[in-house]
Amino acid sequence: MKCCSAQVQSCWEQPHKTLQKIEPVIRSAASQGAGIIAFPEQFATGWDPCSDKHVQDSSGPIVTALRKYAEEYSIAVLGSFRQYHQPLPKNTAVAIGGDGSILALYAKMHPFTFAHEERCYAAGNDLAVFEVEGVKCGIAVCYDLRFASLFHLYATKGVHGVFVPAAWPASRREHWELFIQARAAENQMYIIGINTVRENPVDVYAGASMTADPAGCIIARAGSGEEAIISDLDPGTVDEARHRFPVHQDHRTDLYHRLHGKN
Question: Which strands form 76-83's sheet, in the order they lie side by side?
Fold first, then answer.
């Protein structure tokens, strides 16, 4: 399956403008044969750890527009929005099928406490697994990339690739690349990181969206500006890697849990 990572700059807190801006990007990805196109974290508004603007549910204007584009261009779309939830909203990514149906919703499991995101967003508690063109996919969001256990869980579910929409700052770009490669190699899966670019009121972002293959090698990489990159996700490559070098059979989950529980 061809995957398009759409490294776009948000129209800050103007989702209507951003949604207009991305339509030709989606059209182009579809014309190139991409099965899915993915956008950065809270792409329609720009990521803000404490904003309560444009909070909406999955029937709101952001997801509705993405569903319309997906159906019109027959391409799966992965976007991210501020989802209504009480007492706090959730930082949620949505996967939409090429027929416009919602395939999965994933709420960011690890709010970015360094920027006090936990004060304004509730943490998610569930995985999200969906399938596009025979590729079994998972979702994580930005800071989640630092938590290896989440990606191991996806591997145990047979996931071939995890999409990571992000607003990863330029000051920690080296960590971005390191974690994408590490999570891919550890779990023998594709990791598709989709980052935002340039400066907004929160921080400066360097882009560098990239895809790592099951060996941890970077197979596609964007620069520092707005760009859409294509990478190939082959479930057979994942299955072969796991069969040829079955590292996960040596994972001692029960022991880890026992040792974790010791004082």
Answer: 102-107, 90-96, 76-83, 36-38, 2-7, 227-232
